[in-house]
Amino acid sequence: MAKTKNEATTEGARELTFGGVWNYAPSLEAVDHVTIAKRHDLFVGGEWVKPKSGQWFPTIDPATEAVLSEVAQANDKDVDAAVKAAAKAFPAWSRLSGEDRARFLFRIARILLERAREFAVLETLDNGKPIKETRDVDVPLAAQHFFHHAGWADKLDLLFPGQSPRPLGVVGQVIPWNFPLLMAAWTIAPALAAGNTVVLKPAETSPLTALRLCEVFQQAGLPPGVVNVVTGDGKTGAALVRHPGLAKVAFTGSTEVGKEIQRAVAGRMVELTLELGGKAAHLVFEDAALDQAVEGVVRGIFFNQGHVCCAGSRLLVQESVHDLLVEKLVRRMQRIRVGNPLDKNTDMGAIHSAAQLARIRELCDDGEQNGCTKLQAVCELPSKGHWFPPTMFTGVSMSHRIAREEVFGPVLSVLTFRTPEEAVEKANNTSYGLSAGIWTDKGARILWLAERMKAGVVWNNTFNRFDAASPFGGMKESGFGREGGRQGMRAYVRLAGGLLPG
Ligand code: NAD
């Protein structure tokens, strides 16, 4: 019988309280504390089951290095059981009317919002990102993905007219650690709306909100096996993408692993979408509203500690305003509050892991050793946990590693350009193609640039804005396929010919 929560493992649960006034939405029921089970099992066939591997591993709070919980390490047999559970659930789920599937998705979205505070606190603890962001971005946006895709569930024939859209089958989804709940929502919601069933593998360093989401699925009465969650490291992910029972693989993560997955599915009749890394160019022209551009640049690189695939990590500034913009950025950087992620005034939280911190330090050292000027905010950092202050490098050229490689941290590289043509050339001079940003007062220039930038998403006079209705995805080594909107739904259906191209 399905349990209503992770009962098997709540023994000895720790209680964590989040102090301060919390002001997300007055209609929300207040949740006084977040309880974290000492141990988490796997969610397979609607139940919490012990891993056949007999192994668990710790997940820590990056801000304190305290162990939050132990999480199951799923092996090949666990993955096989999860895929079989999803395959068993597929016929009934895919035959359900779109209206009925929509009801489940709406219910999930509503429960997620009712439990918003709990999810925000849990995400902040497990990931290190500030509560301000989990509260205002991650959780509401995750709910929005369920609301949005619920709306498509009964309109697939309108979305793909004359093309008889059909679900694919069991979808294997592997996601990264930087937006754990949001990535789970933006892959699960379209898959379910289209009538597929899912096996999700969250990142090993931030699995708690995906596991908590399973409680929401139970609360919403989602039929057993429609979503299954297997936790573990890269070996678990590799076992999932290799499983012959999958009809589709959706991967979000690094370009390196994305390429491995492409090789693993080659020669099989499996659909694949890849959402990979990025090295976005953020262009500022001399006619831009500079104070607004400064805010955009700060949001572009310091949001979520810079652990953002589409982060505006390469700032390209028109030469005539370089010194002024850098001066303004230095002043603004100094005002960023770094520290306790649970404090609602904190702007930048902890670096997600020791490994990520080492990577950030290595690339910064390389920049310094190769003649770039490091400008760093002076701030008192906690003695425990993983921390890195807001950092900017000037005097950077495209040959520097900090301009070419994804730092995935709060580190901005500043380069210059003289003409729009040079700006485009420099912006496109990267193996990635996920996102870009443009700050200028001239509408015609925005259109001219947007046509020429090789990036899946181009923001104009703003940056890092997301919406479930807006397709998101990359070009070149940033991957293929889209998440969100009509284009996102396309990745989860099979079309049987028809009048319109898919
Ligand atoms: P990662 O590639 O190391 O890991 C991502 C996931 O893949 C994890 O769940 C991991 O356990 C799993 N994995 C590792 N090896 C595997 C293998 N051989 N087979 C199958 N699964 C495997 O990435 P990360 O460090 O967790 O995340 C950071 C990366 O993700 C960055 O490069 C970032 O740009 C990218 N990212 C991209 C998007 C996007 O939408 N384009 C969004 C978020 C993050």
3D structure, described in words:
- The chain is of the alpha/beta class.
- It has two domains: about 40-60 and about 70-275 and about 480-495, 3-Layer(aba) Sandwich (Aldehyde Dehydrogenase, Chain A, domain 1); about 280-465, Aldehyde Dehydrogenase, Chain A, domain 2 (3-Layer(aba) Sandwich), CATH 3.40.309.
- It has helices at about 75-95, 100-115, 115-125, 130-155, 155-160, 180-195, 210-220, 235-240, 255-265, 290-300, 320-335, 355-370, 400-405, 420-425, 445-450, 485-490; strands at about 15, 35, 40, 40-45, 45-50, 55-60, 65-70, 165, 170-175, 195-200, 225-230, 250, 270-275, 280-285, 315-320, 375, 390-395, 410-415, 435-440, 455-460, 480, 495.
- The strands form six sheets. It has a seven-stranded mixed β-sheet, sandwiched between helices. The protein has a six-stranded mixed β-sheet with strand order 11-10-9-12-13-21, sandwiched between helices. It has a three-stranded mixed β-sheet with strand order 3-7-6, with helices on one face.
- The model is unreliable at about 1-30 and about 500 (pLDDT under 50).
- The site of nicotinamide-adenine-dinucleotide has 30 residues, from helix 8 and helix 9.
